[in-house]
Amino acid sequence: MAIYSTDREVLQTAIDWLELNHQVALVTVAKTWGSSPRPAGSMMLMRDDGIHTGSVSGGCIEEDLVKRYVNGELTEHYPNLIDYGVDRQDALRFGLPCGGRLELVVEQLESAEPLKTLLSRITSGQLVARRVCMNTGEVSLHNVSEVNDFRYTSDDMIKVFGRAGQLTRYVASIALMLDYNVTVCDPREEYRAGWNMEGVNFTHMMPDDAVKQILNHNRTILITLAHDPKLDDMALMEALTDDLFYVGALGSKRSNDQRRERLLQLGVNQEQLQKLHAPVGLAIGSHTPPEIAVSIMAEITAARNSIAATGAQKTNV
Question: Across residues 73-88, what is the average pLDDT?
Answer without folding.
Answer: 76
